[in-house]
Amino acid sequence: MKLTGPNTREVPRPRFGTAQVWVESPLQLLSAVETHAAGLLGHDVRIIPRQGMPLEATTQALLTNAPAGVRFLPAARKPPAPNSAADRFVTGDAYSGKVQRALLAGVKAKEIIIIDDGMATLALIKQLTATDPTPLVRARAKNSAARTAMGLAMWHRLRQLARDSRLLIVSALLVDDATQQRMEELGIKFAQHKFEWLATQPVAERFTEPTLLIGSAMVADGLIHEEPYLQWVASIAADGPVAYFPHRRENGQLLEKLGRIKNVVPMKHTVPIEMRLRALRPGQEIRALPSTVIPSLRLLLGHDARQLYPQAVPESWWTDSTPQSLREHLSSSLKV
Question: Global pTM?
């Protein structure tokens, strides 16, 4: 892994040492394995999932061929303390209240590593490279004054860690040269992976439906209206069978309505889409609204990425409560 941009230099590859990895989603779990496979976490890596997260299927899928040195520990309610004996504290969600409380309590780890959490990682980089301090809180949440204050303290904590050369961000997503230059000026180390480890693994699933539709959490999150979303799915299914891959945040009521649409074949939520849809049959196509998986699948599919058809969100679909900045951020995943 190398930094790209005006001042290209190799990111240090710590082959030894220990890392405690806190993951809160299937994508973060996959990102942790990719980051370790690239040699960035050390020789003894302990992955701790958050209690209650749907990670069992992903863990089982990764166990067989996980790179040497990885151990999966029992789920926990909160992350390990970054002031413990581990050399590196690794997390995918810098917006998580649990993570922020842990980091603000004290950091003795030699390095804090933020692994890929999709578009949220790009949002984090944008905020950390901004001139003015901005609270690290979720844009779609209603945050209290106390929560906003903690998010602001987290911004300062990460900037301080960067000044001390103790912050590394790892992502599969593209970060432009100007932003990488700004990160380097601030002391933020950056490495980009291209799912090199996953690309070497056997393909476990293949689907027969001619259209593979990736479900969106935007309805569940209150960002877009339900009715046009259902109509969009129905219009795609009118042309033939559609395998529908639900997002983990889609609720049962919406999934029930989707299941009643003719030609829609609901799939069980198991492992990240990046692991499921990286091999297509001739003529098969993928449809999706703006999502992290679009740039990820472009990397994994290579030449077959021409069979990926992302759909921009029409203006009328957005709910009034969705800020313009969030609309633009989500839509940025459509850029090639």
Answer: 0.86
Nearest alpha-carbon partner for 5 in 177, 167, 172: 177
Q: Residue 336 — very low, low, confident or very high, per pLDDT cuts 50/70/90?
A: low
CA–CA distance, 31 with 41 (Å, rounded to integer): 12
Return d(Cα 30, Cα 223) in angstroms, integer. 26
CA-based nearest residue to 242, from 287, 279, 197, 276: 287
The tens digit of pLDDT for each residue in 44-60 reads 999 998 888 777 777 77
Beta strand 88-91 pairing with 211-214:
unpaired
Which one, of 42, 28, 311, lies nearest residue 172 by Cα? 28
Which pair of tokens denotes residue 196?
A: 């090199």
Is the model's pLDDT at 35 over the cut of 80? Answer: yes
pLDDT digits (tens, 9 = 90+) for 113-145: 999 888 889 999 999 999 999 999 987 777 889
